[in-house]
Design brief:
This protein is mainly α and about 575 residues long. It is about 65% helix and about 0% strand. Its EC number is 2.7.1.108.
Length: about 575
């Protein structure tokens, strides 16, 4: 980039691999700019390593706490208890492993949870590539000879650790499947995601695929997340030829685009929609039906669940409340911000205009963070099953709409692109996908999904609401206060001390209100000391990490609360 970039407009992004910066109606997106790599947090993270030493310490804190409990306190019952809940253990390890992987601290996970593998991990003195690391991880986690520790003084002779709990897939196949998915996700999203974010997503897809293909008995509400999410990916594959044909026409310069081409693009888009619909009805519906108890018809089961089964009035009330909140949120967005855009104009602004622009964009983005607080904090504990199910459907809907937007499929692609352009920042302009809203939903849902992975209805405590508290209150207040009033920066970083303090106060205040308003499950107590320590750690990670806050912070907060034994359960 030229050094006098303030005087010379930047060129539009290359559209050879993505339509994110292309006008979905075919016009040139001359109002869209690439992100200045000197200002991009992603460029900083890639060029200066994956994280600071302080960030490493924060990431490793839950594992160090576990190591203290196991080695210093001789609390071997805790380790055995975790191993007897293999699905919970492996999900948290697999997800958080890639957060550590992003920091190149490969041995910390195993050295903490499985002390008897230290001698293996000490041999890893290099930083292998992603496939190498993934393969090493698979070998360690899926090798029963490593997990069984009889030769190391632990009596695990009667313990069979299956990371996916009765999933009828050979572990070597799962290992290669995980590496393959990781490579595919990296190719499909590059350069939008960091290494740790890629790993978390790939691990989640692997877990969902393994669960969807297994013969494991699931609760009805658990069926939809793996089957719908994986089924949606499968359903889009036959539609890809039509999607690519429509995209080629979209890339045609407007002056060369005839009415015939426009009509063909619409025909290709309709063919893509029809193909996906046929796959949903012909493949996903029977798949869900086979997994439901009694092989009920999915649509009939949903109607009966919503309007007839025990607790239907609570579920209907929750759905109504969510619909009202979303409707009012859309009205506010359209009325206040419909004429504003989150994209940079062609000419770069001066410093004062840039700051004002950034603050306005930040307020628009954090509005949705506040909206999730209003929607979910008062309701999740009323029916965790329904909340789990609703999050599953919402994630699939978000993925589908993002496919339509990214591929600029008419007649919806242009409208979705224009709407989301009001809220995109540099992270959403690095690749062909807009990840903010996807990660916001996933971050709110992850604590609940992970807690309910043991096939029981949880007592909803602070840990289960941690994603909503961290993102809806903590991250939002940290960003607003930091940008508006922040003066003291953390060691030269953009994040401020004032923002970090606001994060802590907002989360603790939200937790206190939820406790006083009885928005937690009955008989739930809160360990305020442990909650404060976990919140401070999460706030510091938010300040020092280059990773996506919406995805990493809720996962980290949930882990810290479990590591401290402060899950909010009586």
């Amino acid at each position: 980039m030229s050094t006098n970039a303030r005087k010379t407009p930047e060129r539009p992004c290359d559209t050879s691999s993505t339509l994110l910066h292309t006008d979905p109606d075919g016009g040139s997106a001359d109002s869209v700019l690439t992100v200045d790599p000197r200002k991009s947090r992603y460029a900083h993270s890639r060029s200066h390593g994956s994280g600071s030493g302080f960030e490493r310490a924060l990431i490793l804190m839950p594992f160090l706490i576990a190591l203290y409990n196991l080695l210093v306190m001789q609390d071997w019952d805790t380790l055995l208890g975790l191993l007897q809940e293999p699905r919970w253990l492996i999900q948290i390890l697999m997800l958080l492993f890639f957060t550590i992987l992003g920091l190149r601290d490969i041995h910390a996970l195993y050295a903490t949870i499985f002390p008897f593998t230290i001698y293996i991990c000490k041999c890893m003195t290099q930083s292998p590539s992603i496939p190498d690391i993934a393969y090493i991880e698979i070998l360690l986690l899926f090798n029963e000879g490593v997990v069984r520790a009889g030769d190391y003084g632990l009596d695990m002779s009667n313990l069979h650790v299956d990371p996916f709990l009765n999933i009828d897939i050979d572990p070597p196949y799962l290992g290669h499947l995980h590496v393959t998915i990781l490579s595919l996700v990296q190719s499909a999203t590059k350069p939008a995601l960091l290494t740790s974010e890629l790993g978390i997503i790939a691990t989640g897809i692997t877990l969902l695929l393994a669960t969807a293909l297994s013969n494991e008995a699931l609760e009805p509400y658990e069926v939809f997340l793996p089957v719908l999410s994986i089924g949606l990916i499968i359903a889009t594959i036959p539609a890809l030829p039509f999607v690519y044909s429509a995209m080629r026409i979209t890339r045609t310069p407007p002056q060369h685009r005839t009415m015939r081409l426009i009509e063909q693009r619409l025909i290709y888009a309709c063919a893509a929609y029809a193909t996906i619909a046929v796959m949903v009805v012909g493949v996903i519906r029977p798949w869900v039906k086979r997994r439901l108890p009694g092989e009920d018809e999915p649509f009939i089961w949903i109607l009966r669940y919503m309007f007839q089964d025990h607790g239907w009035d609570v579920r209907l009330g929750m759905a109504t409340w969510w619909a009202v909140c979303v409707g009012m949120g859309i009205v506010v967005v359209v009325r206040l911000w419909s004429s504003q855009t989150g994209m940079h104009p062609v000419k770069l602004r001066n410093e004062e205009e840039e700051k004002e622009f950034s603050a306005a964009l930040n307020r628009r983005r954090k509005f949705f963070h506040g909206l999730v607080v209003v929607m979910f904090i008062p309701t999740i504990s009323r029916d965790p099953e329904f909340a789990h199910l609703a999050f599953s459907f919402a994630l699939c809907l978000f993925i589908l709409t993002e496919i339509i937007r990214a591929c600029a499929l008419p007649p919806f692609g242009a409208g979705l692109h224009a709407f989301l352009s009001n809220f995109t920042d540099d992270r959403d302009r690095r690749g062909g996908i807009v990840v903010s809203h996807l990660f916001l939903l996933t971050g709110c849902a992850l604590p609940l999904w992970l807690t309910m992975a043991n096939n029981y209805i949880p007592q909803v405590g602070i840990a289960e609401l941690g994603g909503v508290l961290c993102l809806g209150l903590g991250d939002a207040m940290a960003s607003i206060v930091g940008k508006e009033y922040g003066r003291v920066h953390w060691f030269g970083r953009k994040k401020t001390v004032e923002g970090t303090v606001a994060f802590v106060l907002a989360v603790l205040s939200g937790a206190y209100v939820a406790y006083c308003m009885e928005w937690l499950s009955p008989l739930v107590e809160v360990n305020w000391g442990s909650l404060t320590l976990a919140t401070v750690s999460a706030a510091l990670l938010e300040a020092f990490s280059w990773q996506n806050d919406n995805l990493v912070i809720p996962l980290y907060m949930w882990t810290m609360l479990h590591a401290l034994g402060a899950t909010g359960h009586a």
